[in-house]
Amino acid sequence: MNKTKSDYEYEMQCKPDFAMVNVKIPAGKTLKVEASSMATMDTNIKMKTKFRGGFSRFLTGESLFINEFTAEGGPGRIDVAPGSPGDLEHVYLEGNDVLYLQNSAYVASSMEVNVETKWQGMMKGFFSGESLFLIKCSGTGDLWFNTYGAMIEIDVQGEYVVDTGYIVAFTEGLDYKVQSVGGYKSLFLSGEGLVCRFSGSGKLWIQTRQVPSFSSWVNPFRPVKKSN
Q1: Is the pLDDT confidence value at 132 over 60?
Q2: Tens digits of per-residue pLDDT, 51-100?
Q3: CATH number, domain at 103?
Q4: How far apart are CA 86 and CA 15, in angstroms?
């Protein structure tokens, strides 16, 4: 997995808080982009919408569609902006590289990168409080993914513990088990909930914020309509 190699000229902007990526698509080439993530594009870029993932993508809460943008008659530029406020990361997958993303992290990729949903298993998915599915990215080419909040890359050698809500992506060399931080009292009263205990050798990306915590923080400030 290479962070410097790329088949496209690209530039990250507004990192790390409200990141977007500007990609120059070579003439005749196509870029896959998550639905609703295109912000601007040159007039010679043509878009096609493809149905991807079937019922499994529906269960993840993602769009059932991925848009394909092709530069016709010459190179063209497209600006891609994820829906959540946060950071963006780029990696280049090579050979046997496989990266797993949490269900809302995928942003864009080369046509040669396979993007598919992967069943976590009932125990891991249901009890983690997250989606039952992950996004599996494999093949050879560019991949962009995003976070809610800033992003931190961690080199895991052995074991590492992360709250399930902060996981963004991890490489195939890592296995994980979902467990509570403490006993049942800690699970329901501590506010910490469940964690993933990673083991093995690989890379892990985490985010500095999570949506449920933000929702809990905002909730007391919501305007409430008083009953007569």
Answers
A1: no
A2: 665 544 455 455 567 899 999 999 999 999 998 899 999 999 998 899 99
A3: 3.60.160.10
A4: 8
The predicted pLDDT at position 14 comes to 93
Cα distances (angstroms) measured from residue 174 to each of 62, 156, 171, 198, 199:
24, 8, 6, 6, 6
**225 occurs within a structural domain:** no
Give the range of the structural domain holding residue 44, as residue numbers without chain letter.
9-217
CA distance 147 to 89: 9
Tokens of 204: 């892990």
**What distance in Å separates the CA atoms of residue 177 and residue 165, rounded to the nearest whole number?**
14
The set of residues, in sequence order, having a beta carbon less than 8 Å from that of 156 and lying 6+ positions away, is 174, 198, 200, 201, 202, 203, 204
Q: CA 131 to CA 84: how far, in whole Å?
A: 17
CA-wise closest residue to 39 among 20, 12, 61, 11: 20
CA pair distance 80, 184, nearest whole angstrom: 43
